[in-house]
Amino acid sequence: MKALRTNSGRLVVVVFLALLLVGAMLLSLRFGALKLSFGEILETLFQRRDGIDYQIVFNIRLPRVLLGAMVGASLAVAGTILQGVMRNPLASPGIIGVSAGGGLAGILVMLALPQFGAFLVPAAFCGSLGTAVLVYLLAWRRGVNPVRLILAGVAVSSMLGAFSSTILLLNAEQAGGVLDFTIGSLATRSWPQIRQAGPYMAAGLAAALFLSRRLNILALGDEVAAGLGIRVERTRLLLLTSAALLAASAVSVAGLLGFVGLIAPHIVRIVIGTDNRFLVPGSALFGAAMVVGCDTAGRMVMEPSELPAGVIMSLLGPPFFLWLLRRHSYEA
Question: Whole-angstrom Cα distance, residue 215 to residue 302?
C-alpha cells in the first residue's frame, strides 16, 4: 500500500481507474434489450454510420453512458471537496443537504415554474450553494465541529426534503414525471441533457483540479494556510462554489442520486492517500465508473424492465456508511 502513495504509484492508480471506467462504459454499451458484442460496438463506434446498431449505440446507449460518467464524476469530486473543506470524512452532497437543496430548486422549476425550464441548472446551483453555506454557518461555533456539521446537514436535508414532498403533493397530477428525479435515474436521458449540464460540469471539474493544491494546504489548518499565503475564506468559498456547481449540475439531469459523493472519495483515499492533486481525478474516475456500473446493473437485474441507478446505489451506500461509522471514531 505504501508504494501506491508515492506520486508514481498514485499515477498508476489513476491510470488503472481510467481503464476501469472504459471497461464499465463498454459493458454498459453492450447490455440492453438488444445485446451487442464488443466487436459490433467497436465497429459501430468507428466505422458504421447507419442501421439498427448505430441508432441504438449513438442515440440511446452512448449518451446515457457518457451522462452517467459525467454525473458520477461530478458527485464524487463534489464529495471530495466537501470532505476536504469541512475536514469531515462523512461530508458529501447527499448527507449535508447540498443535493437536497439543488433537488428542491429543480422540483420547483419543473413543477411550479415550468416556464423557466431553461434555468434548471442555475436554479439548482443556487439551491445547492445556499444549502452548503447555510449548513456551514449553522455548524459554526468558534470553528466547525465534525459532529455538529453532520447533524446540521441532516437537519437541513430533512427540512428541504419535507418542502420537496409538499410541493409534490400539491402538484400530484404532474408529480409522476418527477418520480425518476426523486429516485435518481438515467433512463430516457440523451444528448440534450449532456448539452444542458455538460458546460457546468466541465467548469466545476476544471475549478476543482485547479484548486486541488490549495485544498491540500487548507487541510493543514487555517493558521498554517494563511501563513503560507492562502486567503482562507476566499479559497473556501471558491471550493464550496465548485462543489455546489458540480452537485447541482448532476442533480439537474440525474435527480437525487445519493452516496456517490461519500463512497468514491473514501475508497480512492484508502488506496492513494489524501493528496488532492491525485485524489480529485481519481475520485472523478471511480465515481464515474460507479454510476455507469450501477446503471448497467439496474438494466440487467430485471430485464426487460430496469431499476433506476439511484435504487442500486441506495442499496450499496448504507452498508458502506455504517462501515465507516464503525471503522472510525468521530466523537473528537
Answer: 42
Q: Provide DSSP, 68-80.
A: HHHHHHHHHHHHH
- SS3 (DSSP) at 60: helix
Alpha helices in 142-190, H assignment, sequence order: 146-170, 172-175, 179-183
Cell digits for 48? 458504421
Overall CATH class of domain 2-24+64-292+308-327:
mainly alpha
User: How far is 269 from 92, CA to CA, in rounded Å?
Assistant: 14
Q: What is the DSSP string of 182-219?
A: HH---TT--HHHHHHHHHHHHHHHHHHHHHHHHHHHHT
Question: What is the separation of C-alpha 324 from the centre of its chain, rounded to a whole number of angstroms?
Answer: 19
pLDDT tens, position by position, 268-315: 998 898 899 999 999 999 999 999 999 999 888 877 778 888 888 888
Question: pTM of the full predicted structure?
Answer: 0.88
